[in-house]
Specification:
With 151 residues, the protein is mainly alpha-helical. It has helices spanning 2-30, 35-49, 59-63, 72-101, 107-121, 131-150, and strands spanning 54-58, 126-130.
Amino acid sequence: MSLLLNLIWLLLGGWLMALCWFVAAVVMAVTVLLLPWSRAAFAIGVYTLWPFGREAIDRRVLTGHTDIGTSDLGMIGNVVWFCLAGWWLALGHVVAAILFAITLIGLPLAWAHLKLAGISLAPIGKTVVDSDVADAARRSHAAEQLAKIRG
């Protein structure tokens, strides 16, 4: 089912939003100072090309460790990202979601655009994995948190 949805996604304009992500990545790479944000934009651009069957998940949940992207520096990085590119990429995804939501058949595509709008706002500290891996990581993280609570 993911394959079919991804092909429909590409045919109905998913490639256009991915292109926006790649343009943001190139613009940031040209400035050199914004190279770390460029890497994130490129990775999410690839995710935008093929969003079904994959999810963006917090690396802390996935690995169980804090890194630079999931620390306070990552939060600052997300604020910079939001100011430079996040808001307009999210806006593009929200507009596309509204257009797809008008039709019943477009609802899965609208939902994918809304998920991408969410990651557009704060991509630093996230990684894209298969949905099964994301589910397993969330269950494992929840079990660890529950064990801590229970003592």
